[in-house]
Design goal:
The chain is α+β, with helices and mostly antiparallel strands. The protein has two domains: 1-182 and 281-330, no CATH class; 185-279, Chitinase A, domain 3, CATH 3.10.50.40. The protein is built from twelve helices and six strands. The chain has helices at 21-24, 34-40, 74-84, 86-109, 115-136, 143-151, 155-181, 196-207, 212-219, 241-244, 284-297, 302-315; strands at residues 63-67, 70-73, 185-193, 234-235, 258-262, 265-277. The strands form two sheets. The chain has a four-stranded antiparallel β-sheet with strand order 4-3-6-5, sandwiched between helices. Strand 1 and strand 2 (70-73) form a beta hairpin. Helix 3 (74-84) crosses helix 4 and helix 4 crosses helix 7.
């Protein structure tokens, strides 16, 4: 588990620290190759960063350029980006939707992030970026020089931009963890393998007392294998075959081998119910110390975010409009 001073296992607002572009190609800012490297570095900002303090995208009907007086619209630029890099464009839209939902939920419940947590995470992130810039440039550049050469930003302004992104990320973690705590939850462990015979053999060993975590790490194809097959506690009322088929199993119990369909063909799954947790009551302020403690012990997992998004889809009107339309707001 990640401790307070260690790298976070999951950040929604900052999914990874990137090697900043000019140094990624070995170029020193200001050298002849730096302009090309800077162009390649256009996507190097942490997700969500450019939407605040750097030049903001104008309204869809706004003019971003003119050719002989004819306007080039922001909407046209977005459609071009969407066609040339659809995954990146769609991810950016989803990030903005998540940020908007998180802000609304935070305002409704009075969620905040302790200042010391923000300061610690900001320092960690900037230190990691500093290390990567120096490493990629072989010591010929530092973060401050690179940011100034690439985006024309002083160090203090860049740090302020990163801080806002960090705050959004940390706030989302607390909003998600609080919402999930309001539901009865089930925590599971999963092993998924390709062959039924192997699954049956693994189940026999588990029934005889073998360590589930060891067998998961050895054999499981599931994304939870590195964590010993453990899933985070998730709301039991979410529609999921996994919960429906383990509803009658007591904590500690192990399911039968079940065939499941995947994109790679049939797989065979064994599930252990670790715990069934009751819903929590109380305001965010009352539960905040507990939330801080659990986040320090167990960073937010992607499955928790997915569960939260399902709840938000029922609570809010969310429409993803693809390349954009002349939306009537309904």
């Amino acid at each position: 588990m990640a401790g307070a001073g260690r790298r976070r296992g999951f950040d929604m607002g900052i999914l990874a620290v990137v090697v900043l572009g000019a140094c990624a190609g070995g170029a020193v800012p200001g050298s002849p190759t730096a302009p090309e490297a800077r162009r390649e570095a256009a996507a190097a900002l942490p997700p969500g960063l450019a939407s605040d303090r750097l030049p903001s995208p104008p309204p869809a009907r706004s003019v971003v350029a003119r050719v002989d007086g004819e306007p080039v619209l922001a909407a046209d630029a977005f459609r071009l980006v969407y066609l040339s890099a659809p995954d990146e464009a769609a991810n950016a839209v989803r990030q903005l939707v998540v940020d908007r939902l998180s802000a609304r939920e935070a305002a409704a419940i009075g969620a905040t992030v302790p200042e010391e947590v923000v300061a610690r995470e900001l320092a960690r992130l900037l230190a990691e970026q500093e290390r990567r810039v120096r490493e990629a440039s072989k010591g010929r550049s530092d973060l401050e020089s690179h940011v100034r050469a690439t985006w024309g930003l002083p160090a203090a302004e860049y740090a302020a931009i990163v801080r806002e992104s960090v705050e959004r990320s940390l706030l989302l973690e607390r909003v998600v963890r609080f919402e999930l705590s309001r539901h009865a939850r089930t925590q599971l462990r999963v092993i998924r393998v390709k062959e039924r015979s192997l699954a049956e053999e693994i189940r026999r060993k588990l029934v005889q007392g073998a360590d589930f975590a060891v067998l998961a790490r050895q054999h499981s194809e599931d994304g939870s294998a590195r964590e010993g097959g453990i899933y985070p506690p998730l709301p039991s009322d979410l529609p999921s075959p996994l919960f429906e088929r383990t509803g009658a199993i007591a904590p500690g119990g192990i399911s039968e081998v079940e065939e499941v369909s995947t994109a790679d063909g049939p797989r065979y799954r064994i599930v252990q119910v670790l715990a069934r947790l009751p819903s929590e009551s109380g305001s965010f302020a009352e539960l905040a110390p507990q939330i801080e403690r659990t986040l320090d012990e167990r960073p937010l997992a992607p499955l928790e975010l997915e569960g939260w998004m399902r709840i938000m889809e029922d609570r809010h009107r969310i429409r993803l409009l693809g390349m954009g339309t002349d939306d009537d707001g309904s």
